[in-house]
Amino acid sequence: RIHRYTLQTLRKAIRPVSPAAFMRFLFHWHGLDEPGEGPEALLGVLQQLEGCAIAAAAWEKEILPARLHGYQPNLLDQLCASGRIVWLHPNRGETGKAAPLATTRIMLIERANLPIWLGDAPAPEHLSGAARRALEALRRGGAQFFLDLVRTSGLLRTQLEQALAELVATGWATADSYAGLRALLTPSNKRLSFTAGRHRHRRQLGWRVDDAGRWSLLPRDDAIEPQQRNEQIAWTLLHRYGVVFRRLLDNEQGLPPWRELLAIYRRLEARGEIRGGRFVDSFSGEQFALPDAIEPLRRHRDEPTDAQYQVINGADPLNLTAIITPGERVPARRQQRVIYRNGVPDSLLGDGGVMEALAGSR
C-alpha cells in the first residue's frame, strides 16, 4: 500500500506539457538541435532508431545527415562490416510483387537484436525466375561475394543486380556492407567503373555492387521468447521517444499490442526503473517516461520567446503530423518536408520547393 501511494504521489508531481512542447523536446532528444559526430554518435543514432522501417533512399540522404554533423558513408560501412549493424527489410507479412528498392522500407539494427525485428520468411513463389536462382545459389553456397554469386547462379551481372534488389525488397537478403544497398540504389550509369591499362582509375562517381562484401540470406531460426521480445521493444520505444503512450505509436510497425506493452511499463514503473504520469497534455491513457527525459521535457514546457524553426523530412520518424500535432497527415515520403515553428507544423515544402501553409495547423 505504501508503495502504491508513493507511485501515486510521483505521478501527481508531473505537470504535463503541450503537444508543441513535446515536439520541441523530441527534436532535442534526437539531437536535431545539436548533431553528434563520429562513429560512436552514429551508433547511438542507430540504436535510437532501431526498429524504424524507413525508405531505403532516405537513410543517408535525409535521416542520418540531420542527426550527425558531417556524416560520411564510410562510417556506416565500418559499422556494418564489423558486424555491429545489419540492414534489412523486415518483411512484415507482405506478399506479391516487390516494391521499387528506393521506396522499400529498410531497418538498421544491431546484429544481436535480429530475432526481435525479423518477420517470418516470405514465400518464394512471388519471386521472379532470376531472384529464385540467386536465392537457391545463396542457400547452397551460403554467404558469397558478388563475383562468386555470378558464377554459382549462372546469371549475368545486370540480372544478378536486379535479382539481389528483389531479394532485398522482399526481406530475403542483406550484405556485409551498406555499400551493397547503396550500389543497388545508384543508377548503373553513375556507379564506379574502372578502365583497363597501366593506370587504373575511376571514371564515374558512385558505388560498385562488387564492394558490398558478401551477400547472404537473413537468418530466421533464432527463437526468442515473446516476453523477452516485447520487453526489448518496450525499452527501444522509450529510448526513441523518451515518453511513450498509445497514440504516439500509431506510426510504428510490427509492435506487440498496446495492452502487452502497458503491462511491461507498469511493471517497470513498479520497480522504479521508469516514471508514470501525465507528461503530455491532450492524450488519454497511461503515459510512461525515462527518468532522464523528465528534466529536458520540463525545460521545453515554456513557449520560446523567439520563433524556432525545424525542418523534418516526411520519411523521418519524427513526422508526427496528425498524431501529436494538429492538421492533416503529411505522407512519409522523402520528397516532402514539414516546417515546424515552435513545435507546430507551419508549412510544407513539396517536390518543387513550393511552400504551402498546412491547413488547421495554426
Task: Provide a brief overview of the structure.
The protein has 362 residues and is α+β, with helices and mostly antiparallel strands. It has helices at 2-12, 19-29, 39-48, 56-67, 73-81, 114-117, 129-141, 146-153, 157-169, 179-185, 226-241, 258-271, 291-299; strands at 54-55, 85-88, 105-110, 144-145, 173-175, 214-217, 243-244, 275-277, 287-289, 309-313, 337-341, 344-349, 355-357.
Characterize the structure shown:
This protein is an alpha+beta fold and 362 residues long. It has 13 helices and 13 strands. The chain starts with a helix and ends in a 5-residue tail after the last strand. It is globular. Helix 2 (19-29) packs across helix 13 (291-299), helix 7 crosses helix 9 (157-169) and helix 11 (226-241) crosses helix 12. The chain has a 4-stranded antiparallel beta sheet. A 3-stranded antiparallel beta sheet has the order 1-3-2. A hairpin with a 5-residue loop joins strand 12 and strand 13.
Topology:
Layout: H1 2-12, H2 19-29, H3 39-48, E1 54-55, H4 56-67, H5 73-81, E2 85-88, E3 105-110, H6 114-117, H7 129-141, E4 144-145, H8 146-153, H9 157-169, E5 173-175, H10 179-185, E6 214-217, H11 226-241, E7 243-244, H12 258-271, E8 275-277, E9 287-289, H13 291-299, E10 309-313, E11 337-341, E12 344-349, E13 355-357
Antiparallel strand pairs: 1-3, 2-3, 4-6, 5-6, 7-9, 8-9, 10-11, 11-12, 12-13
Portion in strands: 5-15%
Q: Order of strands across the biggest sheet?
A: 10-11-12-13
Number of strands: 13
DSSP helix fraction: 25-40%
Mean pLDDT: 87
**Rough outline:** globular
Instruction: Describe the largest sheet.
Output: 4 strands, antiparallel
Structural class: alpha+beta
